[in-house]
Amino acid sequence: MKNPEICNSVLIVEDNVDMQHLLSDIVKEAGYRPYKVSNGSKAIEKFKKFNPDIVILDIKLPNKNGFQILTEIKNIRKDAIAIIISANGDYKTEKKAMDMGVFAYFSKPFNNNELISILRKAVNTEIY
């Protein structure tokens, strides 16, 4: 379990500005530091720079989709924890995400308190 005194960080990869702000507010409410980006290239750049504890990814993004970003992130750090939040809530997409090793998958709209709970569980997860 991680030390709660350490401020954990969350990389938010979302191209919709309003959703990006909402997710940032939720992350702050949970007690974590958000880093926000709107596309795949910036996501990889920020991931390498800040090494966040958790990555929240949308699926449909400019220049790279969430699955491509997830693959790159997992190649950089195998134990990276990712949460997918997508408007495309079909079973096939969710199954693909889970098969790729995401910690959780949420369909938009989602319950803010549920997301906070999942963030807290994810931060306290030891992946070997």
Structural features, described:
The protein has 128 residues and is of the alpha/beta class. Helices cover 44% and strands 19% of the residues. It has a 5-stranded parallel beta sheet, with helices on both faces. Helix 4 (91-99) links the parallel strand 4 and strand 5 (104-107). The protein is globular. The chain starts with 8 loop residues before the first strand and ends in a 5-residue tail after the last helix. Mean pLDDT is 89; it is low at 1-5.
Q: Brief overview, please?
A:
This protein is of the alpha/beta class. The protein contains 5 helices and 5 strands.
Strand order of the largest sheet: 2-1-3-4-5
Shape by Cα distribution: globular
> What is the number of helices?
5
Strand elements, count: 5
Cα distance, first to last residue?
A: 13 Å
Q: How many whole angstroms does the radius of gyration measure?
A: 13 Å
The biggest sheet, with number of strands, parallel, antiparallel or mixed sense and barrel status, is: 5 strands, parallel
Unreliable spans:
1-5
Along the chain, the helix and strand elements come as EHEHEHEHEH
Percentage of residues in DSSP E strands:
15-25%
Mean pLDDT: 89
The amount of helix comes to 40-55%
**Which structural category fits the helices and strands?**
alpha/beta
